[in-house]
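Hey forum,

I'm writing up a methods section and want to include a predicted complex as supplementary material. The small molecule is zinc ion. I've pasted the protein sequence and the SMILES. Can someone with a working setup run it? I'll credit the forum in the acknowledgements.
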Amino acid sequence: MLTGGRPHSFGAGSRLRSRTKVLPEQARAHNRALVLQTLYHRGALSRADLSRETGLTRVTISDLVAEFIADGIVTEIGVREVTGPGKPAILIDIDRTGHHIIGIDLSGAAEFEGAVLDLDGSVLERRSVPLPDAAEPELAYAAVRRLAGLLLDAATRPVLGIGIGTPGVVRPDGVVLSAPNLGWSDFSLESRLQGELSLPVLARNDANAAVLAEYTFGDAPADLMLIRIGRGVGAGLITGGEPLVGGRFAAGEIGHVVVGTDPGPECACGRHGCLEAWVNVPRLENAVAAAPDERDAILRQAGERLGIGIAQIVAALDLSEVVLSGDRTALSDPFVDAATRTLHERTLDGVFEDVIIRFSDQRDIVLRGAAVMVLSAQLGVS
Ligand SMILES: [Zn+2]
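Reply by user p_vandermeer:
Happy to help. Structure tokens for the complex are below, copy them as they are.
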């Protein structure tokens, strides 16, 4: 599995949808991932189709497919109807229901949520456990362990792995460096749970999990930022088709960046004017409840602050989309419109004017992102 604290990307399949050159010793893993990635996104294909699509030889494809069938990852699903002469081609596909994935989301306000998912990211079963009463490391871990057990009991197929989206800064080897709400610091969540359950476990920041769901299931481009807005604000980034992690593993920690030079509302961190202080949902709801007639103006003001906060990021990374995930009722059109207008006003004309800010359509975005973590690490699929 992953080693050490060295920054690297997302697991064994590491390069998502990548076509860059690989070293010879990586070629086999690369070819495996390429074939599975193609099947995953294209659906049923013949071996000849796969050879054409991937540029790999028929012999290589046959070998790999035989291996996948033996592993139970790929299955023959029938023959294609043919009109012309020649043998009908046997179609193969990822065995999408043959394995299950467990996704866990620790970012909820009251519960840890979990799901059993199939390989397409569809939720099959749900379980949850209440958040522990205190931010004690062992209490939080015991709750995660119990939820994982409930989900393993609910799975009816072999489980490919467990993906966890957790609040806090998480190292690529699944050590939670800091998650104050759960009482974790330098907590080896991934290796400990993996050791106890004898299953692959992957733990990442919840926003970093969410952006993977958007990328894999949401038709998102290869350069995007996903911003989760709730009680707090956090972002996950994908650039050039790869998750951006950062030297401190804290890429996307934009919630406590002060937006503007005026004081602004007080933040939970003690400062004034953090992005999170401006746009967190409870603050906006309270402000609107206190002055219902000013609802649109309140939302516009918050949207402007978001636009100011992300303009530099969009320009520095040349992002194509900014996707929001959160309460769509609280953060309605005036918010998104103002954010979009502000972003365009503050970035180079003629270059960034087509950058979109939109809401994600994904439900269970962290759970599904956690499933992508497992797909990516175990199969090289993203
Ligand atoms: Zn703050």
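Some notes you might quote in the supplement: Residues 256, 267, 269, 271, 274, 276-277 surround zinc ion (CB under 6 Å). DSSP finds eleven helices and 16 strands in the chain.
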